[in-house]
């Protein structure tokens, strides 16, 4: 059972009912890896969602909006129009948000497939934790901002870890 | 079987073959939740994809392009260059599209994990429907545009529902 | 077992142990489809990640940055400030990257659900390959750039294939 959760090397083409026993053992390990993935994926997604709130916070405190309907409460006509402007802090948060999207989407997809490819728990946790840590560091490095190469290195750590998981997924998929 | 689909509270560490029976019952419920997720995830993704077509429609009708190669059919040189411009309607649709991305990506990831965490069908449907409704309302509020706080509230509804699902996922993942 | 992997038309509500046999057969097919999805999803995500590196490459070679802290190595004050500018090549890669995000996110979600809806391997491979091909062509069409409608057509191919998979997912989800 759960044959698609068994790592390729342990899986035979003509699997008998007995192989279900092995699958079960593997699956219990996969369970832990899967829910470890679930926890870290949820954490990085919540962190990414936080960026929306930070953007809204900066837009309101800096009074810097894009949509005319958002400035209606500041009065009509020219008096409200001056709030339709870009603010360096708002733009910085938005760049951080977009960078999150660009990097968390690959992690979501590749990480899920990696978790289902039957890696060892220790290795999987190492990957997930480096990724989550790299994105949290990246946010601090971007928003404070810290001098380079802090932001560059934190981005690179998550990038390399995602490629390492992608390699594992492709190996599993092609050995099938 | 399907043990990773069983909610943590019903799952024992040293599960015997008999626990497979319970798993089976749970899985049948999970089935419905999973495919409910599938339906709503597909609907919001199709809605998001529609934004690409709306952008293309406005670019062509407003004659507002970004890439020089896109204006080649309007003639060469200066006559085509005047179509390389931004248009408020195009920019509005693009902002709506980006907001979709920023909010639908967390729903995709967290919603899938939530559906696999074994929630009750009624609760799950409530979450999925509020989210899908909030994104559809958000699009209308952005494109018409409706006066605030329509757009703000429709965005917030989807945001809160995603956090509620994230809480459930983390609870399941950490009880494992 | 794996009942949620069985296409709706073959699945009975009151499934007996015997239906597990059928499920197993179906699952073996699903296995192949699932890992085919895994391979193509990973390939398009790696391609998308490549856009980050291409952006970084152009930013460094064209000396065109957004963040003041990125130009610190070029000296202080006014001498570094002139590198805070937009460059047409950098902007072009960034647009390609955003277009990837807008199209690969729907593929990731809908493609996964489609792979779990029990399609035939041949049909599934056709969908996955057209999508992956369309995104690779789109990148070349955008970055070289090729004259239109190369970019438009390559984008449309991936769009249509995703809608075709979405239709299959909705059919499976609603027949449950």
Automatic annotation (TrEMBL), chains A, B, C:
It is a multi-pass membrane protein. InterPro entries: MAPEG-like_dom_sf (IPR023352), Membr-assoc_MAPEG (IPR001129), MGST1-like (IPR040162). The chain crosses the membrane at residues 34-58, 104-132. Its EC number is 2.5.1.18. Coiled coil: none annotated. One of its GO terms (cellular component) is endoplasmic reticulum membrane. It holds the Pfam family MAPEG. Its main location: endoplasmic reticulum. It is found in: Endoplasmic reticulum membrane; Mitochondrion outer membrane. It catalyses: RX + glutathione = an S-substituted glutathione + a halide anion + H(+). Conjugation of reduced glutathione to a wide number of exogenous and endogenous hydrophobic electrophiles. Homotrimer; The trimer binds only one molecule of glutathione. This is Microsomal glutathione S-transferase 1. It comes from Patagioenas fasciata monilis. The lineage of its organism: Eukaryota, Metazoa, Chordata, Craniata, Vertebrata.
């Amino acid at each position: 059972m759960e044959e698609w959760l068994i790592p390729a090397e342990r899986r035979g083409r003509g699997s008998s009912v007995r192989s279900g026993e092995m699958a079960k053992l593997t699956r219990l390990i996969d369970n832990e890896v899967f829910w470890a993935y679930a926890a870290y994926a949820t954490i990085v997604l919540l962190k990414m969602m936080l960026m929306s709130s930070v953007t809204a916070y900066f837009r309101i405190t800096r009074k810097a909006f894009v949509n005319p309907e958002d400035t209606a409460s500041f009065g009509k006509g020219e008096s409200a129009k001056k709030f339709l402007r870009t603010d360096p802090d708002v733009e910085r948060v938005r760049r951080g948000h977009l960078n999150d999207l660009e990097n968390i989407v690959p992690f979501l997809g590749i990480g899920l497939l990696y978790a289902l490819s039957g890696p060892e728990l220790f290795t999987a946790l190492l990957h997930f934790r480096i990724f989550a840590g790299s994105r949290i560091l990246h946010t601090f490095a971007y928003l404070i901002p810290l001098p380079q190469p802090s932001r560059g290195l934190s981005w690179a750590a998550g990038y390399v870890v995602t490629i390492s998981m992608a390699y594992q997924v492709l190996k599993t998929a092609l050995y099938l």
